[in-house]
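Researcher: Go.
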Amino acid sequence: MRSPNDLPEAARPELPREVIELGRRISALPAGLVKDVEAAYVQVVDCVHRRRRLLNLVQEALAELRLDIKYLMFDLDATRKERDQLKAQLDELERPDPGF
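Model: Structure:
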């Protein structure tokens, strides 16, 4: 069985401490019982890794979305300023000249 102690050092922090403790308790069981629950434990560990990867993907997507929103807000602000400047120029050109 892949016990938590068999996992590489880099993989251990990804597992919740409860799953690591479960692996330790499973390893302490008699060999016959270990075989019965080993597959389920491996599935749980794989599921935890999948969820961790999915969470990381969602976090990266959110970070990218936040950055995109910042760029869009900057672009919107610049467009509004440009519109206001052009409107002011147009109003100035359309204003009747008081000298005539």
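Model: The mean pLDDT is 87.
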